[in-house]
Amino acid sequence: xxxxxxxxxxxxxxxxxxxxxxxxxxxxxxxxxxxxxxxxxxxxxxxxxxxxxxxxxxxxxxxxxxxxxxxxxxxxxxxxxxxxxxxxxxxxxxxxxxxxxxxxxxxxxxxxxxxxxxxxxxxxxxxxxxxxxxxxxxxxxxxxxxxxxxxxxxxxxxxxxxxxxxxxxxxxxxxxxxxxxxxxxxxxxxxxxxxxxxxxxxxxxxxxxxxxxxxxxxxxxxxxxxxxxxxxxxxxxxxxxxxxxxxxxxxxxxxxxxxxx
Amino acid sequence: xxxxxxxxxxxxxxxxxxxxxxxxxxxxxxxxxxxxxxxxxxxxxxxxxxxxxxxxxxxxxxxxxxxxxxxxxxxxxxxxxxxxxxxxxxxxxxxxxxxxxxxxxxxxxxxxxxxxxxxxxxxxxxxxxxxxxxxxxxxxxxxxxxxxxxxxxxxxxxxxxxxxxxxxxxxxxxxxxxxxxxxxxxxxxxxxxxxxxxxxxxxxxxxxxxxxxxxxxxxxxxxxxxxxxxxxxxxxxxxxxxxxxxxxxxxxxxxxxxxxx
DNA sequence: CGCTAGGTTGAATACGCTCAAAGATCGTGG
DNA sequence: CCACGATCTTTGAGCGTATTCAACCTAGCG
Lengths: 261, 261
What we know:
DNA-binding; Arc Repressor Mutant, subunit A; globular; 4-stranded antiparallel β-sheet; alpha+beta; 2 domains; Jelly Rolls; homodimer
C-alpha cells in the first residue's frame, strides 16, 4: 500500500458524485464528506486487505478501481458476495460490527480513502441529514443485494448473468464509468462463476449463449450490452437507484428510463 | 387490523429483551425505545399489509407472531426473503426508502407496534447511542442475510434446510421462544420451499431425509432439533448474534456455544 | 360426507456439475 | 524474436441434483 496526495476538486470524488446525483448536496455537507477523504492509499491488484474473522478498524471509500467481498468455503470454493465500485463504501458497518465475517480483495489497482469508523459519529452530529443519507445508501445496498441473492434461488444461469451485468452497468453509470452501453470490467469468468454460484464451465456456456443471442459482447474485459431492452426483459431487471426526478413516480417505465438513459 | 392496549412491563417487549441481551440498555434508553411501542395493532394471520411497489410510511416492531417479506415473480412463484420474528423491525429502511420493493404478510396472528419512520430521527437525537445500536441491528441482519443468501449458491438443499432451521432456532432463542431444542414454526413445506428456492417436492424429500437421519423431528408445526452438533456441522452454521461475553473471543468454540447454550 | 389444504411418493426430464482435454492470450526470460 | 509457462477460455461427455407432472394420502372442517 502506498500513500498518495492528489489534488482533485471536491465534486470529482466518486462518493460525492454519486450522492450528488441521487440528491443534491449542500456545500456544508460536501465539506463534511470530504473529511472522510483526507487520507488516500493505493492498493495493488489482487491483494486481500480485509481478512475473514479479523478485527477491522477502518472504513474505505473506493475512488478508483474494483474490489470484491467474498467468503471461502470449506471445500475450497469461494463465493463473491459483492463488488465495490468507485463511490462505494467498504465495510460500512465497521463501526458496530468490529469483526469481519468476510474478506475483501482488490481486483484491479485500487485508490481508496481510509477513515476511522468513529468519523461517522462526528459526521452524523455535524450533519444529521448525512446520517440519513448513509442509511439510505445502506438501504440501496440492501435492496440490491436482496434482489441479486434471491435471484440465485429462481433465476436461471442465463437470467442471473444478464441481471448481474445490468446491475454493474447501472452502478458504473452512476459514477460515469460507462461509455455508451460499454463498460470495463476487470473480471475473469472464474470470478463471475464465483459470484453467481455457477461452475466455470457452465458460466462459459452461459456467456456463449448470451453472445450468440446477440445480447452482449465481451472482449478483453470490455463488456458491451447490445440490447438493453431485451436484456432487462430476460433478467426481469429492476432498477435500484431512483433519481431525485423519479421519487414521485412508480411506473415501470420510469424505472427503465433510469438505466436506458 | 384491531387496536389493542396491553399493560406489559418494559423488559417484556421482545425488542427490548433482544437489545438487552446483546448489550445492556440504560433506563433512559429503554424509555426512548418504549416510545416506539406506544401504538400496538393486531393483524390476522395471512394478511398482506405491505405491498410491493407501494409507498409505505410506517415501521413495525413484531411483538408476537410471525411475518414474512417476499417477492412475486412473473411466473407466479414467490420468493420469501426473510422472516420477521418477535423483536424484529419490519421495514427498517422506511425512513429513507419510502417505496417498498417487496411485500410483507402475516403468517400467524400478529401483534405489532407501529411507529412513524420519523420517530427514528427523534430517537437518534435523544439517544445517539441507540442510533449505533440500530445500525448494529442492521449490520446483523446484513451478515445473516449474506450468509443465508450466499448459501443458496453452494449449499445443497439438505444443508440449506439444516442451516435455515438452525437460524430460526437461534433467533427464537434470543427472545425466549424456544423450549429445549424445540420451537413452534407456523410454516408449511410450500413456504419453506419458497424460502430456500426449492420445489415443494424436493423440499419434502429433503425434510424426509433429515428426519430419517435423525437430525430433526417435525410434527404439527413443532420443530425439534435432535442433534444440534451434527446439524451445525452439516449446515456449516455460523452464529450471528454474538453476545456481550463473546465480543472479545473469536474461536469457533464460542460461536458454537452461543447456540448450544 | 365431501371439500380443501397440506403432505408424500413415483417417474421422466432438464439444468447445471464434474472430469477431461484442447485452444487462446499474455508476460517473461533465454 | 521465439519459447515457455501460466492463466484464462472453450468444448465434449457423462452424471447427479433438483424439477415437473401426476397421483394418492391424510387431517381438519363445514
